[in-house]
Amino acid sequence: MYGGQPTTTLDQFANSIRNPVARQQLGFTFSDAEAEWIVTHGPVLQSMYDAWLSGKPVPSPPAAPSVTSAPSAPTGPYRAEQSPYGRPPIAAYPPAPAGGAPAQAQPVYLVPAPQPMYAGPQYSRPASDPAPYVGNLLVAVRSVFSKFADFTGRAGRPEYWWWVLFTFAVALNAVVIDAAIDAPAFTTATWLILLLPSLAVTVRRLRDAGFGWGWIFISLAPFGGIALLVMTLQGPYEERQASQSWAG
What we know:
By secondary structure, the chain is mostly helical. The chain has helices spanning 10-18, 20-25, 32-40, 42-53, 137-146, 157-181, 185-209, 224-232, 237-247, and strands spanning 90-92, 108-110.
C-alpha cells in the first residue's frame, strides 16, 4: 500500500482511515474495527502516517484484536430451576483451560435446598429399649422399688398404674391408722417413702409415651394434674407413631 502527496495532517490522515470511502481511495482494505484500533494506537498510526508522507510502502498494521459482541446467555438443553425462595438461580461456569481458548460454558444451576419448616418439638423421642413387661401388682411394686431413684429408662402403662393403685391403697391405710391413733405419723412416713420412687416412675412413664421429663412440672399449674393424667394414659411412642403413619 502506497501513499499519495503530503497534503494532509496526522488528524486528517486519521479521519481518512476512519472514513470507509477515503480509506478505500487510499488503498487500505482493513475493516472499520481495525481502522478504529489503528487510530486509537498512536505509535501505529504515526508509523503509517510517516510512511505515507515519504511515499514509502505503508506497513501493514499489527493484527488488531477482533471485536466480538458481549457473551450471550447460555443456550442449549439447560433449564434454570426456580429457587424455592424466589431468588434467581445461580449459574456456575467451569474455568477456561490454561493456554487455550475458553471452553464452551456448561451452566450448572445451583439451587439452594429447601429447608424444612420448624414446627417445634412435639415429642422427646424415647430410648430404643422398650419398657419392661409388668403383669401384676407384685411385679410392678418390686420393679419400682428396684429403681427407687432411677429416672432413666422407660415404664409402661401397666407398671405405672399398678404402682398408682399400690400407693393409693397404702396411703388410704395410713390415713385410717392415723385417724385411729389421732396422729399423722403413718401418713407422713408413707409420703416420704413413696415420693421419690413415684416421681421416678412418672418420669419413666412420660418418656415411654414420648414426652420429656420436664413435663412432670405441669402438675404444678392449674388443672395441670389433668394434663399429666392424659399424658400418662398415652401408649408407647412407637405405637402412636405407627398408628399415625398408617392413618396418614
